Amino acid sequence: MAQAAAVAKPPAPPRRRRASATPRRLPYLLIAPAALLMLGFIAYPVLSVFYYSLQDYNPTKPWRNGFAGLDNFTRIFTEDPIFWDTLVFSAKWVFVEVGLQLLFGLALALIVNQTFVGRGIGRALVFSPWAVSGVLTSAIWVLLYNSQTGITRYLADLGIGDYGTSWLSDTSTVFSAAVVVDLWRGVPFFAILILADLQSVSKDLYEAAEGDGASRFKQFWHITLPHLKDAIILSTLLRAVWEFNNVDLLYTLTGGGPAGVTTTLPLYIANTSVDAHDFGYASALTTVAFVILLFCSIVYLRLSKFGGENK
Fold first, then answer.
1. What whole-number distance in Å separates Cα of residue 261 and Cα of residue 237?
2. 142: which of 8, 25, 75, 245 is 20 to 30 A away, CA to CA?
3. What does the pLDDT look like over 245-280, one tens digit per residue?
4. Which sign does the torsion angle of CA 235, 239, 241, 242 carry?
């Protein structure tokens, strides 16, 4: 009987093996080397800037090098009028460039989003300036603005303006001339991002609105713009940061002149570090610029309610 009971007893359920933690951690282990490498390339320069901002560091005057504390920052806000001039110009440059690029980019995106013959070629032509580097863009437009062979020469032949006029060397025209150059290169950025978002708008919404008698403007205002809200906020923020940090285009186009009227804060930082070799003060200026950009970005995202639902 005991043997029969032992035979009839059901076998014990197999023990569950613990799920190995390795498969779950494998993706993180695979990206860890690249992540650490990127962190090193980003963290080390940033920390170095913060460190040197508290130092007097000029390789050409090693006897003056040493800990400066907050002296560099005190000098920025109380003794350096160039800082305030370049900061004001940087704000003006960002506001004008981003606003105009957004308007023209939105218009271009709406145009190339339509169906017409040669749309592919039209899109390629619209987007092509974005592939040109800032230095090459400046070189092209310096030739176009040349007083002997450029636009002003042909306008003078038509009786508009005088011969020998250079828009890049005149303080009254240099800002507008520089704005046109950066517009040519920056508008495609907005057009690309906005066009990509336009592709996802359902045509049923427009057909329903048209059936209800909504005009083209009302369709644009109540359907297109709300759908593009996040794309516009993100693109304007990214472009504002890039325009604020614009160095290559203005440096090769005007060099910050004439008379320093086109010197942005980053260009002033570059001149302070590269030309004057005052790396401590330039690091302090960079730290101030970083704080300004960070603060403005946070405020902009909060006020624009980026990622929130459209009401």
1. 25
2. 245
3. 988 889 889 888 888 899 999 999 999 998 889 999
4. positive
